[in-house]
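Quick one, tokens below:
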């Protein structure tokens, strides 16, 4: 088991976008380790959670989890099939928490018209409270960098944020469309704008999505994103 001390070390050790995304934590109190072909990144505060992001062969991941996975409110995050296999290998019981989805894509994407990066976040919070009150990204929150929007008749009707991007993985969160303006393609338009911008900057764009949100997943798939079931593990009491 070896320590990975820089983001570049993590990038050399893993081509998994989720691990590479988590590597941003190394500049803010995080740590990373490799064991065989597996990598673990401890991110003390990433999207509101203290995370341990893991990827690689199950036996090596299990060793990393055993060595670094215990802690108050720590949430090991990994692909769901891997998580279930790893849990079966652990000497002490681990339970699956709530599963959800990770989606990512690379390459390029056309930049749509009629969407822009906002000069300020004015109007974003009321729209989120109306259309996406469970959003993980909010104006002024640490790690949330900027907001994009679509306006109609001077009114903000769709928004999405760049939040928690790493050096080579741009991250999109906070997607919302005013309920009175649904079924007009606004969600696809704002997501395409943000994804296109982040792909240009970072080469890869990623996001979290609820695994039951079929309409959102369908929009992201049409934009070229691939879906992966992910989950967090919790130590049994």
């Amino acid at each position: 088991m070896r320590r990975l001390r820089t983001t570049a070390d993590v990038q050399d050790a893993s081509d998994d976008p989720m691990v590479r995304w988590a590597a941003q934590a190394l500049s803010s109190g995080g740590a990373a380790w490799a064991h065989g072909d597996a990598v673990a990144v401890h991110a003390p505060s990433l999207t509101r959670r203290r995370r341990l992001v893991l990827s690689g062969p199950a036996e090596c991941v299990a060793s990393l989890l055993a060595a670094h996975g215990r802690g108050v409110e720590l949430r090991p995050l990994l692909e769901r099939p891997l998580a279930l296999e790893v849990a079966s290998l652990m000497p002490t019981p681990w339970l699956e928490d709530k599963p959800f989805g990770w989606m990512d894509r690379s390459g390029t994407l056309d930049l749509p018209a009629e969407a822009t990066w906002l000069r300020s976040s004015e109007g974003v919070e009321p729209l989120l409270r109306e259309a996406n009150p469970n959003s993980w990204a909010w104006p002024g929150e640490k790690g949330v960098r900027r907001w994009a929007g679509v306006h109609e008749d001077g009114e903000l009707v769709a928004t999405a944020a760049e939040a928690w991007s790493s050096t080579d993985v741009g991250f999109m969160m906070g997607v919302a469309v005013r309920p009175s303006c649904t079924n007009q393609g606004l969600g696809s338009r704002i997501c395409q704008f943000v994804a296109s911008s982040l792909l240009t900057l970072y080469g890869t764009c990623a996001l979290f999505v609820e695994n039951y949100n079929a309409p959102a997943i369908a929009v992201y798939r049409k934009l070229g994103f691939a879906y992966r079931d992910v989950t967090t593990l919790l130590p049994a009491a």
